[in-house]
Amino acid sequence: MSSHPTVGVEEEFLLVDPQHGEPVARNTAVAEYADARGIHLQLELTSCQVETTTDVMSSSSALREELSRLRRVATDAAEANGARLLAAGLPPTVPHTFPVTDTARYRRIADRFGMIAHEQGICGCHVHVAVPDREAAIDVSNRIRPWLHLLLALTANSAIYRNTDSGYASFRSMLWARWPSAGPPPHFDSAADYDAAVHTLLQSGAALDAGMIYWDVRPSSNFPTVEVRVADVPATVAETVLLATLIRAGVMTALRARENDDPTPRLTDSAVRAAHWKSAHDGLDGHSIDLVHGNATGPTEMLLAKLVNQVRPALEELGDYDMVREELARIVKQGNGAMRQRRAWQRRGEVADVIAELAEATVAGV
What is the pTM of this model? Predict the structure, then answer.
């Protein structure tokens, strides 16, 4: 059995009409179909979404197989119920409605947060990596803050929204930031400091429960993990595996730095927010801010290469260094979700082309 931290992944998907690409409210029927085939799909806030959850994984190869299996069953379940499964951060079409899933908790959220909840339809990817305890989770969160925005640029997959180019590679992250408990978290000095901030959010009603702490990285409220939530749902399984592997190696690197009592970087909240905005706007084929080396701006591809070099010892321990380098080079060359969306859109200005591109990517390699 591997002595390295285990990893688990949650992917959120859109259910859309096969002909028009508009979101369709069929998550309950899709989940029931999948459940009968041994796959449990989570229901999300809006009824045009479902979420898959992997088992606890010990290798990138096993994770790839599991993600492929889950996407395959979810795709079949959608098709059996007259829908199409899309791995996309946002629906490219103009959505008429995002009906809220009819559960007591989701109704409370909709009542409390109004149009933020009713204009949701947002799909992300959450990566869990095991850590020893909550204090370690807080410290790891602080240590990986300087490069979370690079993962956002890498996975950006929501460029086309409401039948137009949004002007952002990840417009999902712009809409998601409207929630009062979302976005880059502040630096926390301890688990007690984190708990005090959460208490303020809960006491004020800015979050209704611990599950609504939506920060881009946080200690999981349900598992002994640190949970990274910054990414759009990647377009392909291969991109999700790359994302999860980089995060796993990053957590391992942070844990080692903690053991060595290396200083934790102290970043201003304004610098972190600027970095996230820049990466969301430019995406993989643009520029990002180097928060590690003086806030200079450079090509995102170059900064991701620096990140790979920073976590290389952990990647080599996992046996994933060559895979990560090859996958990153391939994605830079072929394009991530946002880049492929824009290429499809620019051909004719037809959202149907974007839908077709997304649908093909969702099941690529599955």
Answer: 0.95
